[in-house]
Amino acid sequence: MNAATVLADLEKRLENRIVCDVLKDMSRTFNTWDGGGELVHRVRAAGHTAETGIRNIVDGNTSIKRHSTFKEMRQVSNDMYEDTIKFLYPILKSGIYSH
Questions:
Q1: What is the pLDDT of residues 13-51, one digit of tens each?
Q2: Are 20 and 58 in contact (CB under 8 A)?
Q3: Can you name the residues that pair with 18 across neighbouring β-strands?
Q4: CA 36 to CA 20: how far, in whole Å?
Q5: What are residue 61's phi and psi, to 5 degrees?
Q6: Cα–Cα dist 46/91, whole Å
Q7: Residue by residue, what is the 3-state secondary structure of 2-32?
Q8: CA torsion through residues 22, 29, 53, 59, sign
Q9: Long-range CB contact pairs, 91-94, < 8 A, 24+
Q10: Percent of the chain, pLDDT > 70?
Q11: C-alpha angle 4-37-21 in degrees, rounded to nearest 5
Q12: Sign of the CA dihedral 64, 65, 71, 72?
């Protein structure tokens, strides 16, 4: 399966999910992940990045709201949407987090 197909599938699956819920779930998973090796540091860093994203959304520092879906995020700010998908894609592809 090529990257474009995988990305399209990811976008379709996330379309109606609430951004904060996905980030919260990822943060919880990443901050307790103990897969070992040097990858553990990268995964924990991604967990902290997800926490920062949640905090920014809740504090009103972004153009989306606490209950915004990925579809709504894309409509409000395509750049933010694309950056979030780029953040999620390799993590989901690795199997560390399953959506």
A1: 899 999 999 999 989 988 888 877 777 888 888 899 999
A2: yes
A3: 69
A4: 27
A5: -90, 5
A6: 9
A7: CHHHHHHHHHHHHCCCEHHHHHHHHHHHHHH
A8: positive
A9: 91/26, 91/30, 91/43, 91/46, 92/10, 93/6
A10: 96
A11: 50
A12: negative
Strand pairing partners for 69?
A: 18
Taking CA atoms, 9 is separated from 15, 77, 80, in Å, by 10, 20, 19
Nearby residues of 56 by Cβ (< 8 Å), 6 or more positions away: 62
pTM of the model: 0.85
The DSSP secondary-structure symbol of 63 reads: S
Q: 42: which 2 tokens? A: 């990268």
- CA 34 to chain CA centroid, nearest Å: 19
Q: Tokens for 53?
A: 């994203």
